[in-house]
Structure formats: structure tokens, C-alpha cells
Amino acid sequence: WLAGMRQKLGLSNSEANDAALAQSLLDTMSENEADFTLTFRHLCDAAGDPHGISAVRDLFRNPPAYDLWATCWLSRLSREPKAPVDRALEMRQINPAFIPRNHRVEQALEAAIQHNDFSLFEQLTTVLSQPYDDQPGFASYGNPPKPGERIFQTFCGT
């Protein structure tokens, strides 16, 4: 778990407080309803350029809570040997931009079953075939569901 979290956070060296840093982020995300996938993907940008922090910060209901964590994370990154650009590139290989979000899967299934329309399924398949690539034309597929789009029942394989 810790090795995976280090990769997701752009940490190549091991330090004693890495587990606490990772857990602190997860706790802060939970408390602030920050989307898991988007948070880690936007951290890639923040790791490569400090100006990228605003995109992550905006995901948190209470942005100052993120700021407290980010101060510790940026301090930790300053002790890493990799150049920020290289770190960001490596993080993008670990943190996907796109996942099969339940509301998108449900939309594709409904269109196929109700209307014999497989276009949403084909688009979803296209997006998910390259989950680590930025795909500006499909950016909305990276967004979490709006309140009215939330799916509360999922199926095996989703």
C-alpha cells in the first residue's frame, strides 16, 4: 500500500513519515468530499508546477484543509532528487485521468438496452482504452457524477 501511495504522490525515496502523509491526504479528501481520481490526477500537475495547485485545491469543500496538507507534501517533494517535470510525468503513469465511473457505465448500458444505441458504449470504450492520457475531447468523462447522476446500485465488473 505504502509503495503504491508513494508512487501516486511522486515520492521515489522512502522517509519515515510517508505513511502519515498519505493517510493525512486520504483523511482530508474524505472530510472534504474530494474526488479520489481527480485529486490524484491534479496532484500530477501540482507536482510539476506549483501553479497547478489551484486545480487540486478547488476539489476540496474546505480548500484551506488541502493547503495544510499541501505544505507538508511540497516540503517532502523538495527532498526528492527528480526534476518536477519528470516527477509529474511519472505520476501521470500511475494516476489515471479516466476510470469507468458508474454513472457513465449506466448511461451507456441504458442507451444500448433502451434504444439499441451503442454510441455511448463506444465512446466510453475509447476513453477507457487510454486512461492515463489526457483526452481534451473527452474531458467530461473524468468528472464525478452530479447529484442527480449518482448510481447507488452497481454490478459485478463495473
Please give the count of helices: 8
| Uncertain ranges | none
Number of strands: 0
Order of helices and strands: HHHHHHHH
Average pLDDT works out at: 93
Largest pleated sheet: none
Q: Which radius of gyration do the C-alpha atoms yield?
A: 17 Å
In whole angstroms, the N-to-C terminal distance is: 23 Å
Shape: elongated
Helical amount: 55-70%
Helix vs. strand class: mainly alpha
Provide the β-strand percentage band: under 5%
Can you characterise this structure?
With 158 residues, the chain is an all-alpha fold. Helices cover 56% and strands 0% of the residues. It has 8 helices and no strands. The relative contact order is 0.13.
List keywords for this structure.
mainly alpha; 158 residues; 0% strand; elongated
Q: In terms of topology, how is this protein built?
A:
Layout: H1 2-9, H2 18-31, H3 36-48, H4 53-57, H5 63-77, H6 84-92, H7 102-115, H8 119-128
Helix pairs in contact: 2-5, 3-6, 7-8
Structure summarized in a few sentences:
With 158 residues, this protein is mostly helical. It contains eight helices and no strands.
